[in-house]
User: What shape does this take?
Amino acid sequence: MQKAVLKLVGLHDEKAKKKAMKIVSGFAGVDSIDINMKESKLTVTGAIDAVELVGKLRKVFSTEILSVGPAKGEAPKKDDSKKEGQDKKDDKYDPASRYPFPHWYIQAPPPPPLPYFYGRNISVEEDPNGCVIC
Assistant: This one.
């Protein structure tokens, strides 16, 4: 669990607050969202990637990362298995393990091919204005 505190420049009214809430709530792993309108601060808690969050928010607001760290109620983890000599992978957030493919990898199928254009099959007798080579 991470706690990310972001500063949103341009967060002045309820409409902007709704936009920010909509963007942040679309992320997977968000546990809580808190917006301080007076200081223009956004606090997000959960299993999130702060850089991806800021990337999405920068499309609408000018955004800065103030701090990123563990959540307040979370104590640092101590693994007893490391003391025993067992090697385990570090438990860091790895988005590639949650989502094996990038979001743009799965696309809609291409449209069906256009039908072939067949020329008109009209004889010269039927079309008096047709070109005739004698």
Observations:
- The helical segments are 14-25, 50-57, 80-84, 95-98.
- The first helix runs from residue 14 to 25.
